[in-house]
Design a protein that fits this description.
By secondary structure, this protein is an alpha/beta fold. The chain folds into two domains: about 5-100 and about 245-270, 3-Layer(aba) Sandwich (Rossmann fold); about 105-240, 3-Layer(aba) Sandwich (Rossmann fold), CATH 3.40.50. The protein is built from ten helices and twelve strands. It has helices at about 15-25, 45-55, 80-85, 100-110, 130-140, 155-165, 175-180, 225-230, 240-255, 260-270, and strands at about 5-10, 35-40, 60, 75, 90, 95-100, 120-125, 145-150, 170-175, 185-190, 215, 235-240. The strands form two sheets. It has a six-stranded mixed sheet with strand order 2-1-3-5-6-4. β1, α1 (about 15-25) and β2 (about 35-40) form a beta-alpha-beta unit. The two termini are about 30 Å apart.
Amino acid sequence: MSKTFAVIGDPIDHSLSPNIHSAAFRELNLENSYIAYKIPKGELKEGIEALKKIKIDGFNVTIPHKIEMMKYLDKMDETCSIIGAVNTVTNNEGILKGYNTDMDGFLDPFKKKEIQIKDKKILLLGAGGAARAIVTGFAKEKARHLTIANRTLENANSLAQFANKIGLDANATTLEKVEINLADFDIIVNATSIGLKNELSPISLETIKPESVVYDIIYMPMNTDFIKKAKEKGAKIIYGYEMLLGQAVRAFEIWNGIEAPYNAMKKALLGGV
C-alpha cells in the first residue's frame, strides 16, 4: 500500500528532504511519495486540516512551525517534550503524534565514527533553534562540561540553565570571550547561522588542539569557513549534512518501521548539496 509524506514550512523550495526520501523509497521499491508543502506563518491550523483531509501518513516540520506545531499534536514522545519543538509527525487515522529527530540526527555521526562524548569538554557556539536539541544530546551522552558561547549572553545563560536542569554541567559566555583558549575543548560545535552565506568563521580556531572534533551543523555550503579553518588545524570534522542525514534516517524509520537505506539517502543528499 502506498503512503504519502510531506515536509511543511516556509520557505520550502530549497528543502532537500523530498530528494532524500524519494531515493530511499526507490531503493526499497516502496510505492510511497514525498512532497514539499508550503504553509506560510499564521496558516498552520488550516494547513494541517488540509493534510488530514488527504490522509497524509506523516510529515516533517521545518521553520517557522517547529514550536507552534506542538499545539496540534494528540501525543508526543519524550524527546519532543524536553526540547520543546517538533520536526516529525505521524498521522494514524487522524491522531497526530510528534517526534523530534534533531537530537538523534545530531548524535548519529558521533556514533558512526565511534567518537566518545562521555566525559568530554564541549564548546557550543550559538543558542538558537537547534541548540536545545544539541544540549539534550550532550546531556544524554554524559558530557563532562559544556560551555555555551553566543552573541547575546542572555540567550546563552538561559540555555545553560536548561542544560543544568537536565543534568549537564554548563556555563555561558560570549563569542568574543571564548576565543582565548580553545585548547581546553575536546569538541567544538557551530550551531549559529554564521557560514550560511559564506561568512567568515564565528570564532578563530587558531588555538584548538589537533585531536579536537569540530562539527558545523550548517549543511550548505558543505565546507564553511569554520570547517576549512578546522581542517587546516588537523581537527576531526563532522559536516552538517551528516546531521541532516541522521534526522532523515530517523524520520524514515519512524514512518515506515523498517531500516532506512543510509547509503542511498546519502548519495541523494550529496547530489543536492
